[in-house]
Specification:
GO terms for molecular function: glycosyltransferase activity. By secondary structure, this protein is of the alpha/beta class. The chain has a single domain, classed as Rossmann fold, CATH 3.40.50. The protein is built from seven helices and 15 strands. Bound molecules: uracil (URA). The site of uracil has 9 residues, from helix 7.
């Protein structure tokens, strides 16, 4: 399954097998031995919380870097210390990170570390225990969000219900689909299909695509409850 997806580092858009497979803009991190070793740490049910947080943080840093590579840049010249010109680049548009509370907040620190001073919004969505439907409880987003490139942060993309509700919030505020990069730790075909069907312009950056979901909507082989393991509330 994962080999059918386009690695972030692949330059050619014409060999876009993930686009055909999922109808999605899915950017899968290159499945290096280092990445797989980190996944081995965090997926181990016996991992200490310290090891889980450390391994997850390393992978989140890789995801963050890959997501930044998808943003638009513009030419920007600087003068070097020897008086020469370096024809460089800088971000072409204002950015914002929007973690979906609570698990998405685990991704905030790595984003702040590589983009100091980045604006951080918040969206709180929780699934109603009876209806199983996602319910929007709270948003904190700047007025100019429609002018920003949005890094939407949520480590788990399982059924896609929460992701769809969060993207809908952004779309209603005028954010174009093409300005949204969903930064995600692990996902599965069901989650990718849910996002791609409704919002084909949204790009997904992920480090793993799982086999599917169990009856409780946990991904398999999966990682368990990411929020509980990261924040130590299980
Ligand atoms: N949320 C999680 O934390 N884990 C899953 O496998 C699915 C949703």
């Amino acid at each position: 399954m994962t080999t059918a997806l386009r690695p972030v580092t692949t330059a050619s858009a014409t060999s876009d097998t993930c686009g055909h497979f999922f109808g999605a803009n899915v950017h899968l991190l290159p499945q290096t031995d280092q990445l797989r070793a980190l996944h081995t740490v965090v997926r181990n049910r016996d991992a200490s919380r310290e090891d889980f947080v450390f391994g997850a943080g390393r992978i989140i840093r890789m995801l963050t870097e890959a997501a930044l590579n998808l943003l638009p840049f513009e030419p920007y010249d600087v003068t070097t210390p020897v008086g020469s010109t370096y024809h460089g680049l800088r971000f072409a548009q204002k950015l914002i990170g929007v973690p979906i509370i609570r698990a998405g907040e685990s991704m905030e620190a790595e984003l702040r570390a590589v983009v100091p001073g980045i604006r951080i919004g918040k969206i709180l969505i929780q699934r109603d225990k009876t209806t199983k439907q996602p319910h929007l409880y709270y948003t904190a987003l700047p007025q100019d969000i429609a002018d920003r490139q949005v890094l939407l942060l949520d480590p788990m993309l399982a059924t896609g219900g929460t992701a769809l509700a969060a993207i809908e919030v952004l779309r209603e505020l005028g954010v174009p689909e093409e300005h949204i990069v969903f930064v995600n730790f692990i996902t599965c075909p069901e989650g990718i299909a849910a996002v791609a069907d409704r919002y084909p312009g949204v790009r997904i950056v992920t480090s793993a695509v799982e086999n599917g979901l169990n009856e409780q909507a946990y991904m398999l082989p999966g990682i368990g409850d990411f929020g509980d393991r990261y924040f130590g509330t299980d």
